[in-house]
């Protein structure tokens, strides 16, 4: 959209205008009201597809909101995932190392009791 391009307004909300670009695609979109300057103060022109376009935009907004809600729910579930741990032994050559195996929060980890290194952790979604 260019600076001096004419827009057709289909709906006006508080700070946004639902518009279509003159000579552009048949798609509608929202632009900030303060970016636009009125050229014709006519009361309005009936357009066949205006309600349909507004409904499409509103449906897209609702779908985006639902997707964001689902992502947040997944994040919350991952945080609440219980971590299960087991005491196990790992063979390192001929030496037996005691350690802890843990599974939960979307990860699998092993921590050795004899080694003073950080626990080895892998994301459960890794394909390795």
Model description:
Helices cover 24% and strands 35% of the residues. By secondary structure, it is of the alpha+beta class. The chain has two domains: 7-79, no CATH class; 84-123. It has a four-stranded antiparallel beta sheet, with no helix packed on it. The model has no long low-confidence stretch (mean pLDDT 77).
Total domain count: 2
Q: How far is the first residue's CA from the last residue's CA? A: 46 Å
Radius of gyration over all CA atoms, rounded: 29 Å
Q: What does the largest sheet look like? A: 4 strands, antiparallel
In sequence order, what are the helices and strands, one letter per element? EEEHEEEE
Average residue-wise pLDDT: 77
List low-confidence stretches. Answer: none
Quantity of strands, as a count: 7
Looking at how many chains there are and whether they match, the oligomeric state comes to single chain
| Helix share, percent | 10-25%
Q: Count every helix, treating DSSP H or I runs of 4 or more residues as helices.
A: 1
What class would the helix/strand composition place it in? Answer: alpha+beta
Estimate what percentage of residues fall within beta strands.
35-45%
Brief description of this entry?
24% of the residues lie in helices and 35% in strands. With 128 residues, it is α+β, with helices and mostly antiparallel strands.
